[in-house]
Design a protein that fits this description.
Layout lengths: L8 H14 L6 H14 L6 E5 L5 H8 L3 E6 L2 H11 L5 E5 L11 E6 L8 H15 E12 L2 H6 L3 E4 L11 E8 L4 E8 L7 E6 L3 H8 L4 E8 L2 E3 L19 E8 L2
Parallel strand pairs: 1-2, 1-4, 2-3, 4-5
Antiparallel strand pairs: 5-12, 6-7, 7-8, 8-9, 10-11, 10-12
Helix pairs in contact: 2-3
Length: 266
């Protein structure tokens, strides 16, 4: 491992490298429709301003802009922000801010805050700090936070596996890669290692804190936001049931996360 929990430096270096390896995201309209559907169902359809945290290469922000939303996209990676600035040239309703959202002073408040596939990069204390910042500083009354949360079931099943991936055509920095997946059962973190086959010293490691729904309920207690819904693959499930079940709804090896809808009090 080349980083410790709570050290954000690895996040910037990982995603700066990722831009060189993979270029712009492979996500496009059909891949992003589920995110748009969730925003349309649970967020305001009148005030269409969105704050997207950890916006990556900007594909979701651009997609939302194409459907009538105004997006302030925040990311810690300079290379990601450069890609988003290129997208910004053709979208007057897209704004880009580079920086660590745990430290940035964002003066505006929004009806909707989104964070897709990036919650859990920091420590539990940092995730709680983030939830409180969203509630106290960035959401208007009755606003919603739409959040992807990683569940440990997928990383546990994938632990110890590796896959060989050939370089991508038409991406100048792309190389042949090996991906290794591990799971830390003590800290409940998915460890994802990307290693260039011919340049192993340039490997990058990301680790992501995984939460069961029950874990997330405990984490979010006291943040000021109420958990309104939880969804897996777009379908609501009952996270408040008192019953114990043998059914495993998290049985899809291609989908490691579930979505939480949190709302600020009016």
């Amino acid at each position: 491992m080349n980083h410790k929990v709570g050290d954000a430096g690895w996040i910037r270096s990982f995603y700066d490298s990722a831009v060189g390896w993979w270029g712009e995201s492979w996500y496009e309209g059909e891949n992003l429709k589920n995110r748009l559907d969730i925003v349309r169902k649970y967020a305001s359809n009148i005030d269409k301003r969105i704050l997207e945290l950890a916006a990556g290469t900007g594909e979701t922000a651009a997609y939302f802009c194409d459907h009538g939303y105004g997006v302030l996209a925040v990311d810690i990676s300079h290379c990601n922000c450069e890609l988003m600035i290129n997208l910004q040239l053709g979208k007057s309703n897209l704004r880009v801010v580079e920086g660590d959202f745990l430290k940035l002073d964002i003066k505006e408040q929004f009806p909707t805050v989104c964070m897709f596939e990036s919650f859990g990069f920091g420590s539990d204390q940092e995730q709680q700090q983030l939830l409180k910042r969203v509630n106290e500083n960035w959401l208007i009354p009755n606003g919603v936070l739409i959040l992807d949360v990683y569940h440990p079931a997928g990383p546990i099943r994938a632990c110890g596996k590796k896959q060989e991936l050939d370089k991508l055509e038409n991406i100048a920095g792309s190389v042949d890669m090996t991906e290794y997946s591990y799971y830390d059962p003590i800290k409940s973190r998915w460890i994802d290692i990307w290693e260039p086959r011919d340049n192993k010293e340039n490997r990058r490691v990301q680790s992501i804190r995984c939460y069961t729904p029950a874990d997330f309920v405990l984490l979010a207690a006291g943040c000021g936001l109420s958990i309104e819904k939880m969804l897996y693959r777009g379908m609501e499930f009952d996270h408040e049931t008192p019953e114990v079940t043998t059914e495993n709804i998290f049985d899809d090896d291609s989908n490691y996360s579930y979505t939480v809808i949190l709302r600020k009090k009016e």
